[in-house]
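To assess whether the prediction recovers the assembly geometry, we first specified each molecular entity separately, as shown.
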Amino acid sequence: MIEYRNLRVALLGAGSVGAQVADQLLTHSDELAARVGAGLELVGIAVRSMDAQRDVELPAELLTTDAESLILGADIVVELMGGLEPARTLILQALTSGADVITANKALLATHGPELFETAEQVGAQLYYEAAVGGAIPIIRPLRDSLAGDRVRRILGIVNGTTNFILDRMDTLGESMEQALATATELGYAEADPTADIGGYDAAQKAAILASLAFHTLVPVDAVYREGITGVTLEQVVAARRAGYTVKLLAICERLTDESTGTDGVSARVYPALIPLSHPLAAVHGANNAVFVEAEAAGPLMFYGAGAGGIQTASAVLGDVVSAARRHVAGGPGVAESTHADLPVLPIDAVTTRYQISLEVQDETGVLAEIAQLFEQQGVSVETVQQSPPPRPLPGEQPPSGAATLVIGTHQASEADLAATVAALTTSSVVHAVTSVLRVEGLS
Amino acid sequence: MIEYRNLRVALLGAGSVGAQVADQLLTHSDELAARVGAGLELVGIAVRSMDAQRDVELPAELLTTDAESLILGADIVVELMGGLEPARTLILQALTSGADVITANKALLATHGPELFETAEQVGAQLYYEAAVGGAIPIIRPLRDSLAGDRVRRILGIVNGTTNFILDRMDTLGESMEQALATATELGYAEADPTADIGGYDAAQKAAILASLAFHTLVPVDAVYREGITGVTLEQVVAARRAGYTVKLLAICERLTDESTGTDGVSARVYPALIPLSHPLAAVHGANNAVFVEAEAAGPLMFYGAGAGGIQTASAVLGDVVSAARRHVAGGPGVAESTHADLPVLPIDAVTTRYQISLEVQDETGVLAEIAQLFEQQGVSVETVQQSPPPRPLPGEQPPSGAATLVIGTHQASEADLAATVAALTTSSVVHAVTSVLRVEGLS
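The predicted structure of the complete assembly is given in tokenized form:
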């Protein structure tokens, strides 16, 4: 083997992922050197405070609060600080100085990705971000390289572990949203302020990254349609299971044609949806993540694993460190991210989905026909109707006399037609209440 | 974008995968050129016979029977002929002439892999083989790159679609092995001579490739312990499901310490095994493949998809073509396969597994104690015992008077101790017959 000088690695951030990355670089240095063909020298760790409490004890002499000086002369810079600034500025400085950069910063990529990738291309450096989506799960590299000769049609991803944990507890243990969220917080799966997770913001950032990569086109996070799980009730989850579905928060990226304008484009969206229990994503429990990819030639593929956790995410970061180091040893310039396709991002109105709508209706002759006609008038085709006894009244409550519950499954319908249908249902004299409207995904 | 000369791609073989690769290269040339940053020119297709029947019509002017001339001057050679020769010689010639080579030839890699990888390293060319294991499923690249900073502990793979199809029909439809094999043959999932699949030879080749890559060590196919599925009976599959398991043909690659000698090494083996219905691999139905990887930091990961099929496998081949082409455009030398770890491949005797053993025994007082003692004498610890009524006698057959069926689950036991136990059971006066011995995998 040719002797090669040590590669200098600078680490920015020593939180739960950063501390594990540092620990692994120090503990497994011989093994990593053998895999790379050169030593990896951790030259320093930029931290906000020198004496913060950390998951792993780190050598004090490696710590510094001066990130700017640390990145000077580094071959590889690993950014695990999170947040937009100073991460953005430091990454731009590192790239410009010729270093390859590894980041797990999904917020930054979803917001300033184009600027970072353009800079990397201009200077011939590489920006790696396997850990930004799906934690330990290899998904970025398969999309960028393995499927580079194929055409991705659709991605359905469970990309947020916190919300999957909550929905899974509701489904399998019958907990309410509040109970499940409390458990998630207690076990460290949810942050003190859980908005980024349960509001779907984290999933939307990941959807933007996945869609940009899969469709070779720029999908900014602002263009991702987003609904969180706060509106999901235990009743919906229970009813879904009874009907052969489970509720998951999905990040959906899709090649699409806007039927109203004939425009080819892409859609990226995040919302809670029903998926059939037979779908591989239905078996993703707890805080796990999975990304289901449908490609034209490859057919359906699924990538499954731990979506978060310090040591798990560190695995993905270190895979990128080794890739970057091998590239340095080999000496070639990087492969730039290419957004050559430049497809428009279509609004949610261009999307058609199946829906499942639950109604409380007047239980009398002719109601079903009236409701069927109402759907037809809005251009929404009904596929299935299930009638069940009215929900059990709460203690002290009077059951609505002569009420019945209808669960209506539709064929593919547009958001606009569905909204018009729901509006018409709400004002119909035979409908007491529209109790649930959920999209259905993953049916063939 | 910098203008770059077209890259010359030579294709060897126009079978079900080759014809699809040619078709995609021709149909999607603009899109591929945009992704690579240079045109991909299919300069010719080497075939055995000019007028063979093919899945896809190919331009006659591209066909040639002179493979040796075709590879001269090619930048990228795609070998999809299969078999050891002339594939081996042609690949060596192509590498030596400076071309990158893509192959899906698992038999060749499992047999002559070291020679091919050494040649590639010497000349600075790259050998890609994503399609050799798991068809369309990206598994080679995740193991080589994404997990390059982690340590793989174990791989459990369903890597042969034919046998999974057969076992799945037995499990879900109650078909016998013969019926299921007949269906597989009829639907084109099994070859006229199914030995390579049902004998476990195909899976053993893939196990050798996966183990070599995961453990950075040379695992020749001869060192892979192999049992096929021919001995699996419908009775075993039915009994397995009743006990909460399903039977899968597994390729298992594992970091292991031989307890008898204290030697650290690796094990690669293929055999039908019980896995719990709650394990993600249990949900892999039909001819699909899945590879379950346990890594030290990443934890459990699973990669799932179509394990075979012309167009599906073509997706993986084209991903490699794009990677090779990008490397040519970028200009750097390849990353060599590294077998730096050089761990010994341990024999099957070094492996400990759990077992499930079914016995027909004399139904009388003291039998259970006698059998428990017999296990204990051989050093095999019993975890569970289930007693069930004797199997229904076949028409005209007399049920053995006073017989009962015992299903015994063991703790981890060595192959040698288990073999001694089975031998002792067979000669025991209270045992009528040992009706089933199966290993159990995937229990935590």
